[in-house]
Amino acid sequence: MKIYIAGPMTGIPKYNRPAFHFEAMRLASEGHVVLNPATLPDGLSKPEYMDICCAMLRCSDAVFMLRGWEKSDGAVAEHALAKTIGLEIITECREATK
């Protein structure tokens, strides 16, 4: 399964990249193809990041929501898009919904 990781980044030390990378490694070890926005380079604008991230999300079968996603405007938008296009939504506590 192709899984996109969504979660808070802005205002978190190291942009929360350690949490993204940890889940990416764990999901990959389970055999999933992982689309990880934390691998994107610094220096883009928020609209540019969202454009790329939404494209990554549209290529996915599911989205993995990191803890605290509800406090991130970007992750809330990604959750809404995932729900709209019918992706499986997995939270960090491993509860799946459609």
From TrEMBL:
It comes from the Bacteria. Pfam families: DUF4406. This is Phage protein. It comes from Trabulsiella guamensis ATCC 49490. The lineage of its organism: Bacteria, Pseudomonadati, Pseudomonadota, Gammaproteobacteria, Enterobacterales.
